[in-house]
Prior knowledge:
Distance between the termini: 20 Å
Oligomer: single chain
Largest sheet: 4 strands, mixed
CATH topology of the largest domain: Helix Hairpins
Number of strands: 4
Number of domains: 2
Helix content: over 70%
Number of helices: 4
Low-confidence stretches: none
Shape: rod-shaped
Amino acid sequence: MSDIREQISILSDVQAVEEEIGMADRQIQVLENEIAGLEHAAGEHEERVTDEKAALETLRKSYRELESESKINAEMIVKSNEKLRAVKTNKEYQSTLKEIEELRKKNSVVEDQMLEKLEAIENAEKAVKEKEGELSAFINQCLEKKESLADRAERERKTAATLKEKKLQISAKADPRSIAILEDVRKKVRGLAVVPVHKAICMGCHMNIPPQLFNELQRFDEIRHCPHCQRIIYWQEKASE
């Protein structure tokens, strides 16, 4: 009788420690998810800064292309002016004047575009500088939070490791057959695998057990199961009810 009572007590202790291990593992997962979330957020911030820099570089490239085009136009205007001095007919003179005028108009448009690009570049540079400042501050915050979360996760891991060692020590006191029964029941049910019976009611599924089984439980002569949920059940003496 005392042996079965002891085995039930050990199985209950093993289960209690497993519950603590589960809580520690869940807390570790929560903390790791928070760390991953911070890393993802930092990555998104970095991507936005990268995009801003890419947009700025596109503007600078466009400006350089316009600047190159403006230089070419200016060189063509110089050549056309030289040509103007060398023409011999009025027709050629008028044609060259028209050519020069068109080049100047074209270059005027290019220069206007260059001014627009310069303004856009200036605004983009301010935006990049602002985003870089925000990124730096955010990353510093993330590093501090990650360090705190990592410390907490490490403490939880140590707690889980201690609990697992405690479980092994408790399990070593049990009959291997009892542990095997516990493992088998755990595969079949959700939540607790070992539960008390109060006033002929299984505290696992809250169903009434047969009167005969309730009387047998009080003998503590073997491990018994709830006929409804298959959990390991035991009688809890009146003083504990």
